Amino acid sequence: LLATTIILAPLSANAADKTVGFSQIGSESGWRAAETTVTKQQAEARGVTLKFADAQQKQENQIKAIRGFVAQGVDAILLAPVVATGWDEVLEEAKEAEIPVILLDRTVDAEKSLYMTAVTSDLVHEGEVAGKWLKDEVAGKDCNIVELQGTTGSSPAIDRKKGFEQGIAGADNLKIVRSQTGDFTRAQGKVVMESFLKAEGAENICALYAHNDDMAVGAIQAIKEAGAKPGTDILIVSIDSVPDIHLAMDAGEANATVELTPNMAGPAFDALEAYWKDGTLPAKWVQTESKLYTLKDDNKAIYESKKSLGY
Ligand code: AHR
């Protein structure tokens, strides 16, 4: 029978003896690639053996990878869940095998007892920060917004949409006229922005809200090809703070981004090390910071410093 609290594998203080499985979503964005790099660096620095599985955007591959990690008897599992639902069964299996699971960067709709902790930003807050920024920026002028959503069914797509709507709530001058998924990729961001431009006309779009920077970068290309000026004719606000968006901001082609750290693994390994040392369990949510960058910041310098962080 499953216990209601997590009772996990025998304790041994030394992280260097440990093997951790990491089920990563894929490499849809620059941010995702950076998270993978940082996770590998964090494991290496702590002497943890990391087993890495790239799910190529498919939940079924993630479920297979987790089952594989359980069969191998790893000491812990890191999971960046592609979508929010459908995890209960496999998380029960890990729990039954007494293997702690830590969620990275996205949340799941499952019982909290099925995972040790979730290291994520406040995804609703990120959207809200973006919405409030836009509301202040347009200062009462009428503004038609187009929205590029992240992967359908993923917690950042759901929460960033909700947060943005909260951020612009009460401003009758702001209206979301089109909203569609661009799957968090640059290529889809461009394709979907092209369709928005075609449907609305560039002159009728005042702002783009993209759930990540990669889609915004793809959309910037589409806007330029349509003969309009991104950052001026169409304001651009997005999330992640990857180097390329700062380069675009430095060129005046994007306006604001909300930072998401790619270092989710650091706090996750800290929690595991504390647990392995003396059984300390972390809080159910380890929240990372969300910082807004705008054209007021030194975007060239930010670009350069981010480039050295594994992006
Ligand atoms: O879950 C975090 C999101 O996933 C990032 O914002 C996005 O770039 C990534 O693909």
UniProtKB/TrEMBL annotation:
The keyword Isomerase does not apply. GO terms for molecular function: carbohydrate binding. Its main location: other. Keywords: Signal. Residues 21-264 form the Periplasmic binding protein domain. The keyword Cell inner membrane does not apply. It is found in: Cell envelope. GO terms for cellular component: cell envelope. Residues 1-15 form the signal peptide. It comes from the Bacteria. Belongs to the bacterial solute-binding protein 2 family. PANTHER family: D-ALLOSE-BINDING PERIPLASMIC PROTEIN-RELATED, GALACTOFURANOSE-BINDING PROTEIN YTFQ. This is Sugar ABC transporter substrate-binding protein. It comes from Cohaesibacter celericrescens.
